Amino acid sequence: MNHYLVLLQSGGGNAQAMQMIMLVGIIAVFYFFMIRPQTKKAKEAKNFQNSLQRGDRIVTIAGIHGKIEKIEDNTIQLEVSPGSYLKIEKSAVSMEWSKQLNSGVSTGGK
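Above: the chain sequence. Below: its structure as tokens.
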């Protein structure tokens, strides 16, 4: 017990405590500004990919536009032009194109 009191009263213990506080602070900054937002974004993307339905118009990561024709476990059959289909992974879907159309972009009067 007396050893702990001597360490706390000396300057060396204070410097070690300050280094420990700084280390914890750096870890907290990394967590709140890098790790947490990235996991939140990944969770939102997973929820979006799981909510896709037949008939949705989507854009892939590669920029391919199409309409979902069939959804299997991890793959989507995408109609890119009438009668032309691509089979892609769900993880390759970037965003829903039909939401862009509904947000004010003119569709030619239809």
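Residues 104-110 have pLDDT under 50 and may be disordered.
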